[in-house]
Design goal:
With 435 residues, this protein is mainly beta. It is built from three helices and 37 strands. It starts with 6 loop residues before the first helix and ends with a strand.
């Protein structure tokens, strides 16, 4: 069996990805993995796809054989392969055929790494890695969610800063480059589904991520301190952020394209809540949201913020979302000040949230269930240079603007059930409104 050939990704790979000039965003074309033309079959290494035989050793042996040969495609045939923790190698395509499932054991001891949990399936310092096919990766999340729900409820009531019970991420690419996940279904993740951490040139293409809407902290795709990331033609229905971009180191996040994706339950596309490394040059394009709690989110606070700029949201449709827009320098969201409240300024530092040069255009949101949204910065760092163009939002109440500067509204129609379409506080400076 030859390595699958994907013409549209090959074309993308030959295009240069570059940082856009200030105020503009360029499309992103990550380099794609190159996999040697060798094929290995999992069942040749003793694996049994009956759903109850433990296959950890067999799968590890098969991956080792690929690695020793210098790379290739490891085919997972139809069947359900129960396993513990796995590490992938460089120059590997883990290819799951139709009706093939990698089922991770619900036993927590399988994933303990010292005092912490490691990812169910991971890379570390690898290059040229694919996970492809029409199969499924199942994280047995039912074993983890009940305790996590209790923990989240208790810590939220206590206003604790973190409400995430420690659990293993399902699929994590760490410190790796030229990564592609394509075609597969990710489901029942203990916590985050797919994480790119400190990666260069990462692609998620035509994958599906499905978890119940009440599963705590089950982010769909997290791009953390990574550069040149493409998320395209994905379906994400989960219990937390659909796609999240976060940075806790100086390397930051830059050059991200999220396009032609469909979002169900969850928190849409999110920036934060850690942005202290900065986030630059991001496009969210041609996406739809239905039953999401929010469409587009930027969230941080004075202890974990940083510069987020050159961001474009364009050609988005939203139906029955809670709120269309949340841009806030107050997080958790319960910390957003009341309308009309004045906040004392503080010195601007490295951790000050700064939202600037953001374009929101060609947006239609119907049936919002809470309000149109909120854009609110800080007195010492207003949300700056934000343009809304060709935007229509239907919601119970209007769009709130506070601690903002140089806001342009061009053909913006907010249709609230009650109250004013725009709730513009006296902390907004330089707002321009065109018909």
């Amino acid at each position: 069996m030859n390595t699958p050939f994907y013409p549209h990704l090959v074309l993308a790979a030959v295009l240069l990805s570059f940082a856009a000039p200030y105020g503009r965003c360029a499309d992103v074309a990550p380099a794609q993995p190159v996999i040697p033309d060798r094929t290995f079959k999992l069942t040749d290494y003793g694996a049994k796809g009956n759903g109850y035989t433990m296959n950890t050793d067999a799968i590890r042996s098969a991956i080792a054989a690929v690695n020793n040969a210098g790379g290739g495609t490891l085919v997972i045939p139809s069947g359900t392969y129960l396993t513990g923790a796995l590490d992938l190698c460089s120059s590997l395509n883990l290819h799951l055929e139709t009706n093939a499932t990698i089922l991770f054991s619900p036993d927590p001891d399988e994933y303990l790494d010292g005092q912490r949990y490691r990812a169910l399936l991971r890379t570390s310092n690898c290059h040229d890695v694919m996970i492809s096919g029409n199969g499924t990766i199942n994280g047995s999340g039912e074993a983890w969610w009940p305790a996590a729900r209790i923990f989240k409820a208790q810590t939220t009531d206590q206003h604790v800063s973190s409400n995430t019970l420690p659990r293993p991420t399902m699929v994590a690419f760490n410190n790796s480059r030229r990564i592609c996940v394509q075609g597969i279904l990710l489901t029942k993740a203990p916590v985050f589904n797919l994480v790119f951490y400190n990666c260069d040139d990462a692609t998620a293409d035509h994958i599906r991520i499905v978890n119940p809407s009440d599963t705590p902290n089950t982010d769909g795709i997290d791009a953390l301190v990574s550069h040149r990331v493409l998320v395209t033609h994905c379906f994400i229905d989960t219990g937390d952020d659909g796609v999240a971009m976060s940075s806790s180191s100086a390397r930051g996040i830059q050059d991200i394209l999220i396009t032609d994706c469909t979002f169900g339950h969850g928190h849409g596309v999110a920036f934060g809540s850690e942005t202290n490394g900065g986030c630059h040059n991001v496009i969210i394009r041609n996406c739809s949201f239905e039953n999401s709690t929010v469409g587009m989110v930027m969230k941080a606070n004075r202890t974990r913020g940083g510069p987020v700029d050159n961001i474009v949201f364009e050609n988005l449709t939203m139906k029955n979302v809670g709120q269309a827009i949340i841009f806030t320098s107050y997080y958790p969201l319960r910390e957003i000040p009341a309308i009309g409240a004045h906040i004392d300024p503080m010195p601007v530092g490295d951790l000050t949230p700064q939202w600037s040069n953001i374009t929101i255009r060609n947006i239609v949101a119907t049936g919002c269930t809470k309000n149109a949204g909120v854009i609110i910065g800080l007195p010492e760092a207003p949300a700056t240079n934000i343009t809304l163009s060709n935007v229509t939002i239907e919601a119970p109440t209007g769009l709130r603007l506070g601690y903002a500067k140089d806001i342009t509204l061009d053909n913006v129609t907010i249709k609230p059930d009650t109250g004013a379409p725009l709730i513009v506080e006296d902390t907004v400076e330089g707002m321009k409104q065109k018909p």
